[in-house]
Amino acid sequence: MGHGSPSVARVPVRGSRVRGLMHGLAVGEVLGAGVLPVGTLPHGVATQLACFTAAASIRTSLRRSVNGTADARADLLEAYLRWARTWTAGASRAASTAWLDEVPLLAHASGDAADTVRGLAVTGAGTRRDPVTTSAGWHALARALPLAAQVGRDTTAAVEFAVDSAALTHGPRTFAPTALAVLVAGAALATGDVGRAVADGITEAILRGVDFAAVSVVDDAVRAARETPASPVVLRAGAPDDSAAATLWGATYCALSHPQGTAAALALASAAPHPTAVSCVTGALLGAANGDDSLPQAVLTRIDLAYVVERLSRDLARDNRANPDGSWGASDDPTWRVRYGVD
């Protein structure tokens, strides 16, 4: 296994921040959609996809611990294909291999994800060397954010998994923004400070050879937030579309404009031309830095999928926490292997 850099390596994962990352993504997506009816709030498709990413991440970790080897790309692809069956007319559900397959809310499409569905329709899906689409959309970035929980354990693996996740269905323009977003979110989990997290994420990205164009995007958002914070006009200019790069710019700008005020940052994100994208990622970044208590509780507790997000968040935190004997997670617990379908 690789080792992270000194800024993020071997940092204990705080459960409240992992929960903040996952719940923040879900809350941000709901708020960005702009419809808050009375009662239960339906979750968004990026939240669905992020749940499958989290489960795949845990499954890969368990397989590596139990069997000594694992294929992260294969686990991610299998997870997304299981998700995609809900989009295929007349498709029957596959036999259950893990608890996530038994969640009724995940058996129904929850929004538009045409780029992801199109990429998964190609046999074998895409790779970073042989992409199957040219899509630059934000779902590639958002769905990879749960991989940030791995950054403090193995930064190299987290970055590789993030790029592989994006490459399965999206084009090369999503690869670097997705990797950088995961690095920033991972640093937020470690530091509890979104400003420092952005700086650490940029440093890590440069050291790891992430495409400098993506680094420049975030650096520009940092400059804009410093010079003209909390401006809807500046936000609209910096994040004009729903590409992964523009979404990362917008989320960075909103988070740095209100580093301690998650509600204010999400309100600013709603002014973006594509508010669901920017709000979703903003919520994840600030939730990772400030914990789940910083999120609007009146929204969080009403999201229909909140109980699933909570369970996955706790399992992600446990899986990426070192044990006294040097092992990781709960791989010695047979109930975990059953939970995530690992023989």
Automatic annotation (TrEMBL):
- Protein keywords: Hydrolase
Natural source organism: Kineococcus rhizosphaerae
| Name of protein | ADP-ribosylglycohydrolase
Any keyword Transport? no
The GO terms describing molecular function are: hydrolase activity
